[in-house]
Records
---
Amino acid sequence: MTLATAVRSLTRDDLHTLLYWMRLTRAFDDRVRLLYNQGRIPGAAFSQRGHEAISVGSSFALGPDDVVAPMHRDLGAYLLRGMTPRRIMAQMMGRVTGVSRGRDVNTHGMGDLSLNIIGYVSPLPDSMPLAVGAALAFQYRGEARVALTYFGDGSSSEGGCHESLNLAAVWRAPVVFICENNQYAYSTPLSRQLTVENIADRAAGYGFPGIVVDGNDVLAVYEATQAAMARARRGDGPTLIECKTMRMLGHAYHDDGSYVPRDLLDEWSRRDPLLVYERQLRDLGALTDDELAALDRRIAAQVDDAVDFAEASPWPAGEDCLEGVYAL
Amino acid sequence: MTELTYLQAISAALWEEMEADERVLLLGEDIGPFGGAFKVTKGFVERFGERRVMDMPMSEWAFVGAAIGAAMLGLRPVVEIQFADFIATPFDMIVNQAATCYYRWQAPVPLVIRAPSGGGLRAGPFHSQNPEAWFVHRPGLKVVAPASPRDAKGLLRAAIRDNNPVIYFENKYLYRKVKEDVPDGDWTVPIGQADVKRRGRDVSVIAYGSMVYEALEAAETVAAGGIDVEVLDLRTLLPLDRDAILGTAERTGKVIVVHEATLTGGVGGEVTAIIAEHAFELLDAPLVRLAAPDTPVPFSPPLEDFFRPNAVKIAEAVRKLAAY
Ligand SMILES: Cc1ncc(C[n+]2csc(CCOP(=O)(O)OP(=O)(O)O)c2C)c(N)n1
Ligand SMILES: [Mg+2]
């Protein structure tokens, strides 16, 4: 395996920071699945497994003033952006201390402009034009900021996707689009959704670059995003980065995903983004067993703390429902 | 007679119409081998093949539009919108194309759009909505919202055979919760006819969808206190059954309209307006609307319980009105 050139620009600390976010994302998601199955998380929750390198690698390239509009498999982006495990777990459990104070479900509605995060709605891909609009605001005020957003292979078939890509192109908007191609839209495989090999190839039709990267290689994702961010910041317009990966569990935790062929999952499990990255770090001599064990202990404690915090948090009062429909 | 759940009744209507009429085909996301998000079309692709049970890419605007075009050209498509909340994406196709083609140039659009709607399932603001009023405000469409398995089957049949676009709101909360004997054979529930689900003298509760059951439960509760409630199930929301609405108002003189959808601009306003216009002298008390408050549908259980009307809230309103 050849290491992405990104490695050269990253310190050992950076490499460990990436490892931390990826493993925190995995551990948090595993806990969410468990809590959902135990009935301690109402509603639904989307699986993240297989997407950790994409959400973490791409959002690691964001500058502090850049804006991100993550989707339902981008837990890593929320965490990395500074949304605490406590707030996110409380959100999952519908408590007042959650990001939306019990109003929205799971990762939906987890917006916080103080963290430069735009929350999402269920209809897909409705965050795409919002990211283009954020980029418009930056252009309008002459700010060197960039907006980053995500969409799935399934969502790429929506008219809104095409309109957003075209609008961004026409405006040369400082926006980076990350396509998370996990080969399924709920139960529907790629073969029933589109006929092209790469969704990134469509970028040519709008007049900007489209790049395909290995979505299970966090350094490759980071490197591609970094370059796209720089391009956007220079005023050269949008980039579409297609990250190839595999959704390793069901669509959400009510779905066993049994329609996905077993051998496809087996093949991709050998390329698990956490395993790939661990191997890369070990090959670089940048990770010891002790370091990894210590990191995982720290993460487990953090996740435990988030669950304790969320379960100790009050439920909203029923009549809170009425408050705050309109901005003051 | 066959005992069917609400969900099975919907499946049965689809199945039998497909058996009977080659022109009927299904379009929707994940409806093929997966059988649909709620499993309404489980086993359909095995029986009818991919030619008639078509898995769609995520392109609602385009596949609803395509269904309209195919309907004009002699097919009778039934589209599943995965959740009614996502009907906003093909909204333009429904309200501008489907609803107006016949009026403008006499092209019938025999199309059914199935939209699983409703809350009470802790599914949050975008998997719980009741957007029926958006469509009730659109002449050229028909809008139905069955509550019972029998009506679910009969109305879906009628919708498929209708030469107009019909939006069929099926209530997710009821899918597996209600069950009843449904007649076999070829029959329909005509679009545009309400149904008295319980006879009573004192107060009328007019409802549809899941609220019919909440109203029936409330009726039982207050019966113990000597209040005799009539429950009218609207079943069709466009066109409304004016005679049935005025009939129940006349019988009791006291009317509550209940819906799960939010209050302002809701179907309840239209129903009460019909009564106020045409039966004002027959009323013994002010008209009452009981609906969700004007907010998005919240997720957290205490918030959603506050939001959603239920039997307890209906019983309270009935007692108050009975005492007026
Ligand atoms: C407009 C719209 N239609 C349907 C849905 C229901 N739905 C939720 S997620 C999903 C599949 C999304 O697939 P993809 O974009 O590939 O993202 P993934 O979930 O695979 O990450 C569908 C069909 C939706 N959210 N929005
Ligand atoms: Mg996908």
Note: The interface with chain A takes residues 29-30, 33-34, 37, 55, 57-62, 83, 85-86, 88-89, 121-127, 293-296, 298-303, 305-307 of chain B (CB under 8 Å).
---
Amino acid sequence: MRNLLFNLMISMLSGIFICLILFPLFALFTATSWSELAGQFKSPLIVSAIIISFQTSLTVVLAALVLGVPMAYLLATKKFPGKEILDTLVDLPICMPPLVVGLALLLLLGGESKFGAFLSGRGVDLIFSRPGIIMAQLFVAGPFLIKSSRQAFEAINENVTKASSSLGASEFHTFRKVLLPLARNGIYAGMVMTWARALGEFGATSMVAGCIPGKTETMTLAIFGYAMSGEMGSSIAIAMLLIVFSFTSLLVFKSRIRKQLPSTQRI
Amino acid sequence: MDIALRQISKSYDGRPVLENLDLDVAAGEFHVLLGPSGGGKTTMVSVIAGLTKADIGSVLIGGRDVSLLPPGRRKVGLVFQDYALFPHLDVFDNIAYGLRVRKLREAKIAQKLKYYLEKTGLEKEKHTFPHQLSGGQKQRVALLRTLVTEPEVLLLDEPMSSLDVLTREQISAELVNIHRKTELTTIYVTHNQAEAFSLGDRISVLHNGKIEQIETPEELFYHPKTEFVARFVGINNILKAKVAATNRYEAVMEINNEGLSQAFMLRAKNYPVFKKGEEINLCLHPEKIDLSKKNEARDNGGNRICGKIAERTNHGNVFKVTIDIGGLALHAVIPKSLFNFQVYEDVWVDFAPDALHPLCGRRCREPEFSRKCHNISSPELVGVCRTDA
Ligand SMILES: Nc1ncnc2c1ncn2[C@@H]1O[C@H](COP(=O)(O)OP(=O)(O)OP(=O)(O)O)[C@@H](O)[C@H]1O
Ligand SMILES: [Mg+2]
């Protein structure tokens, strides 16, 4: 009897949370008709926003992979002075308001700063450009990949690493042949999360991108822009697309991981 | 290759695990490192393998100081306590790992592994993954993975602690076989004294970060030098005695353990350490005790004390019997066929004078080589103290 009550409570509370997710989505998906929706995707500005979003977010994933996996390895396997500080620093972007990130980047890269002036003197303009968007998104979304890969590295049995070096492997060989394959799922998870976060990034991007339609306007910026100017149809169309992308990529990823787990990760 | 540890110390967070540890293992020896859980056995082998850095001290292999060499260049093969197989590689790739690191040609690897896999009966499993293997199979894969790299020294960290008795016997026979063929210097780590006695050429007992005694199994069993070693090898009768009198062959000892309602006298074989009036610990081997009914008078010229059976536990072909002797619990191991008593029955406890021998090491603190029996300075006399005669 007591168990029944407890389980009822659990189900109810979870139910409330599910509603919280489902109702807004429902509102979004019923706000427009399919034919109107199809029409929206003929607009070249919307198509370009989609392309820009994909270009930048996928580049962010690649950059996070190249820069973040080494950082994750460092944090997971090495001991060094100042590790705590580095660790906190890497986590900081997750809890920093994206607008603040954007502001900081603006100050660093803008024409008024020394660094910005130095760069634009060499023909590199990071403000109001795609590289600037990529930087902003990387700042905000990169830590997800680091966190997830780090956890994956840490979950590997230390003796397995030791066995590899005892068998004569160099650290790099061990990293390539043992740690990377074993941390693979964690790294993939980090990539998916980073991608989803980069795709949905708004605050930081809006500060450095400057919403130049067709040039620096990402999907999220376009949603905001259209909504503000009263073009709800366009706004809704892009929003729906964003959700469909995130949902399916998460779903595909999760089922893939579940299928793989038994053969590789357990011992 | 012989192995030598010199003054190895290691602590974790200020807590010492190994303290000024010295150890010499001769080339070709099968050496057993015996010690309780958490005693630092794994730490010690991983120091030898180069996977843990000692705070101070050096490791010599074949006379060469390898302390600064990375693990891969020490030619030390280590089989991990938890096997540490690569979970993402199948049996073949696990075993081939070390050979691939050495850049052997695939054809050569395949040829080499075929031989080993057939010999160990793992041929059928070569494409299975570690999580699909039984404990014994994992053990074999881990051992093979190390052996194919042809190490000069083999370290086995509790290789059988998670196997059933039959598999254990099988694998230990294989190990002995391998050792006989390769004459590979081996350090075998275990907390199981039975394993130690059946496998070791010599046994060293690790306690509180030090080697408390290094000896052949026979010597260690019949002449433990400290209370810890005695109890660890299963001799749990430690008698606190005072030498009352001695003659050429025998000594009369007054036993006065705590809790004893009345001190009593025992006759023991005389050892040079016995000096009249001295206090010393004696150990009494439980398997050297006979029991007889109280009404059966019998005199074997030995010790005879009266007691009451307090407890009896079943251990396969023997009973372990606890006998209460006026407040002192004495432990005896009696073959089942000779046991016809009831619990709480009064019995005579008989044992010969040579069933008792002195614990002549200073307790626990000194490294083994610097320990001696009390009052004896010349090495011959140390020898006398040790012989069973
Ligand atoms: N990396 C580590 N960090 C901190 N403490 C450690 C570490 N490795 C071992 N210890 C501690 O050192 C002590 C000895 O550990 P070790 O694993 O060497 O013992 P052991 O004799 O192999 O024990 P067991 O029989 O349980 O395997 C333990 O108290 C353990 O908690
Ligand atoms: Mg251990």
Note: Confidence is low (pLDDT under 50) at residues 262-267 of chain A.
